[in-house]
Amino acid sequence: MNRDLAIDVTRGLAIWSMITAHFADGAKIAMPTHAFPYVDGMSVFVLVSGFILGLVHHGWIDAHGMRFAFGKLAARLAVLYVCQLTIALVAVAAGMAGYFRLTWLLPVDGWAEGIWASVTMAYLPSGGNILLMYMVLMASAFAVLPLLARGWWAAVVAASIGLYVLAQTNPPDWFYLTADMTAPRIQNWAAWQVLFVPALAIGWNWRRWHLATRIERHLPLLVLVAATVAAAMHFLVIDGPLAAFEPALGDKLDLGVARVVGAWVVVPVVYGVFRVFLAQWHRDWLRPLALSGSRSLDSYVIQSLGLVVVPIMILDRPWSTWSMTVIAVGVFGACWAWAEFRRACHVDKLHRLPAILAAPITTAIARKMPAPAVRPVGVASAATHSSVRRSVSAGSPS
To answer: What is the reported pLDDT for 250?
Structure first.
């Protein structure tokens, strides 16, 4: 299956948007990816992740069956959990060192409580909460994928919209993910799934509906629609007659309607623009975005760890405009460098990294070890040949 670089670049832009939002909020470097109202890296990340899940798992189910796809899905969830645990344990270590303010977390009574809160995913530093919701959304694929395999994509999308309406009108407490923070509610997962689940259905039907070609063909119209939606949000919601409803329409915790519309309008345009660009220009122009996007989970973990490590070990907040710009570029550079490292070492799976790094050492040791004495095949001693001849002579008829 050929890799669509436009998808990787779109994910890479989402990573850049998240990094600039967390490290350079308000700086000019953050403006390009936050110019469209109510659209940010998190919403793009969730939508594109759902799409890729549907696209990839459709191929796996066709080739190997549902059980194989479920095994892959379970393995991915395990990887996500390990990544989330790593982020949380770093936050615990920072808190135990006296830096609770930097992690926006409540104090814990010792390492035991901190480790337990990390294991149960109740300890999430600022910027480290997306993976928890992502795990919940990915777990929903165990129920959604069999329905898509039966061709029930319309019912899946309808159910997703219905759940979103409930999440907006009368959400129960269990719709909200919580953590041990000053503001314990993190995200309304039942609302955010309206980006993930329909995108999963679209990814499932991506090739059958020839959507990549259609987006490219109708890109001018999609750009016009996106510009119209942006203008309507500015002049109706932000500075217009609907300004009184702006807090609800643009709410991030409950994913207001403005954020849903914005994400679904912007992502096809961004993908289409990158697809056209890659067809006309050399792909290396977008290499940093493409590689960091191809390792989007790694990039997210790096920026999450950076939110804890940078204020402690490099420069404490508040940051000047110049400082936050340098830090944001440095963090994204770390994401790019790590992606280049994995590519150079052919590390397709992280669990193979220790063996790959140890390979030169084990090879050198094997070369220095003396080779065992082995008698060449087909060469026998004179005594052996003589013995064989005597045996044959004794056993032959006279």
So the answer is: 94
Q: Cα–Cα distance between 21 and 29 in angstroms, integer?
A: 10
Looking at the DSSP assignment, which residues form a beta bridge with residue 178? 185
Query: Angle of helix 41-64 relative to helix 5-23, nearest 10 degrees?
Result: 150
Q: What is the three-state SS of 304-373? A: HHHHHHHHHHCCCCCCCHHHHHHHHHHHHHHHHHHHHHHHHCCCCCHHHHHHHHHHHHHHHHHHHCCCCC
Answer whether 191's CB lies under 8 Å from 254's CB.
yes
Say what the pTM is: 0.85
CA angle 211, 213, 217 (to 5 degrees): 115
Given a contact cutoff of 8 angstroms between Cβ atoms, the answer to whether 134 and 46 are in contact is yes
Average pLDDT over the chain, rounded to an integer: 87
Q: Say yes or no to pLDDT of 375 above 80.
A: no
